[in-house]
Design goal:
heterodimer; A: about 240 residues; mainly alpha; about 0% strand; B: about 220 residues; 9 helices
Chain lengths: ~240, ~220
Amino acid sequence: MLRYANPARFMQLSAALLPWLSGAAAALIALGLYLGLVAAPPDYQQGDTVRIMFIHVPAAWVAMMAYGVMAAASLIGLVWRHPLADVAAKAAAPLGAAFTALGLITGSLWGKPMWGAWWVWDGRLTSFLLLLFLYLGYIALWNAIEDETRAARAAAILALVGAANLPIIEFSVDWWTTLHQGESIVRAGGPLISAVFLWPLFAMALGYTLLFFVLWLLRIRTEIFERRARSLMLEGAP
Amino acid sequence: MSALVLRDLSLAARAGGGAALALAFFAMVATLVPLGVGSDLALLARIAGGVLWVAAALAALLALDRLFQADFDDGSLDLIALSPHSLEAVSFAKIVAHWLATGLPLAILSPLLALLFGLPAPAILALFVSLMIGTPAISAVGALGASLTLSIRRGGLILPLLVLPLISPAVIFGAGTVLAVLDGLHNGALPLLGAFSLAACALSPFASAAAVRLNLAS
C-alpha cells in the first residue's frame, strides 16, 4: 500500500484510472436512472414516490462509506505520518457531507408523501443529522487550524473518535425512538423488495460509489496541484 | 496529580474561573424555557428532564475553553508536560477537576430547578442520579474538544460543534431515564448512560493527551 503513497506514483495512477472510473460511474448512474425511473413499475402502495428510493438509499450508503474512508485515511495518516493520507482524509469530508445532505434532503422529500411530514424525529433521520454535524465539525476544525500538519493530526484524532462514537450514537438514537422501516435489503432470508426495484438500486449504489471515488481522486489531485503551485510560488518569490 | 486537581479547582472557584458562571447559566436557561413555552406545569414536568439535561450539557461547555487554554497561553502547560506525570494522567486530572467544578454543582442544583418545573420526587431523584452519572462523560468528551482546539484563536466558537454531536448519547440516555420514571417504565437507560460515561472517561484522556501533544510540539 505504501508503494502507492508516493505522490508522483499516485498522480500517474490516478490519471490513468480517472477516465475509466468516470465512464463507468456515468454509465451505471444512467442505467440505474433508466431502470429506476422508466423501466420499473410504480409501487402498488407508494406509487411513483418509491422512485425517490433510487437516489435516497445509495446516497445514505455512500455517506456512511465516506466516513469509513475518511477514518481509515486518518488512521493511516496518524500512524504512518504520511501527507498523502492526510490529504485523502481531508478530501473525503466535504464529499461525505454532501452525500449526507443529499440523503437527508431526498429522505425529507420522500417523507412528506409517505409520513405526511417533511421531518420526523425517527432513529435513522436523526442519526444522519448528527452524522452531518460530525462532518461539519471535522471540516471546521480543519479550516480553523492554520498549520497544515497540525490541522491534519487534530482532524484525524477527531475523525477516529467520531468513528468510535458513531455506532454508539446510532444505537442511542435507535433506542430513543424508531419509526423508520427496518432493514429490508440486507437481511437473512433474502431481500424483501422485488427484483424490479433491486436492480436499479444496485446499479445506482455502484454508480454513486464510483462517483464518490472519482470526485475523491479529483479532490486529492487538486490539493496536490495546489501544494505544488504554492511551493513553486514560494521558490519563485524574490 | 491531586495537586493539579486542587490547583484547577481553586482557579475555577476564584474570580473569572467560570464555575459559578456555568451554574448561573444553567439556572438562567431553565428560567427562560417556561417563559418560552408557557407556565403549564403538566407540560413543564413532561419536558423538565430533557430541558435540564440540555441546559446542563450547554452549561458544562461554557467552562471548557479554559480547561487547557489558560495553561497553554501562559506556558504552564509546557511545564506540566515536562513533569514526570504522563499527559494522559494530566488530562484525566483536568477532566476530574472540570467535573468537580461544573458537573457536580450542576447535578446538585438540578433538584431545585426540577422542583420549579413541577417534577415529582422520584423523577427528581432520577434526574439527579442521571446527571451525577452522565456529566463526567461531558467533561471527558469536552476535554478532548478543548485540547483539539488549543491552537485556534477563537477555539471556543468551534468547540460546541465538535463536542455536542459526540455527547448526544448522554443527553438521550439521561433525559430518557427521567422520562422512564415519569411513565413508570423500566428501561435500561441508566446502565447505558453509565456505560457511555465510563467508556468516555476511560478513552478520552488518551485522545486528549495526543491532541495536547501535537499542539505543544511546535
